[in-house]
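Before a colleague's protein record goes any further, I have to sign it off. I want your independent view on whether this chain really folds as the tokens say. The record follows directly below this note.
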Amino acid sequence: MILALVSRRAPLLRSLINARSGFLDGLSTYLLKLGPHNLPPPFNNEIDREFAASPHVAAMRLRLQQVACLLAQSLMPELDTNGAAPLHLINFGGGTAIDSINTLILLNQTRHDAPRDAASRSPSSTWTVMVRNLVPRRCGYSVPKGLRLPACT
């Protein structure tokens, strides 16, 4: 009851309380990943900032940072070796694909900060990148042609 009253003035907290199907919508998830000091209006009220600063949400941001770093570290050698091959980053759930975006930012930073000794790392070399965001449908996902996923159980 108290939580319902408090959430009337806190749209971000309200989205968590009213989450359907066991997950948050894409905008709320994105806003939580921004952190308490980067929330835009109308989400920058005191209650939502406190919620965004909570240990659980901070752990979610840390996980996002770790996933992006691990992806960038594992992809960089492959992109250096075969920079002409397209890079497909696949996200499940239809959210904001922020982990893929952060990975691309880190890859770009790594690429521009690295010494230019290899031709594959020259500033003129380009990567073809596709971010695929699969949206849930019933028990499965809407899957692009040619991509196979395990059957849902």
About this structure: Helices lie at 2-7, 11-17, 26-34, 46-52, 55-81, 98-113. The radius of gyration is 19 Å. The chain has six helices and four strands.
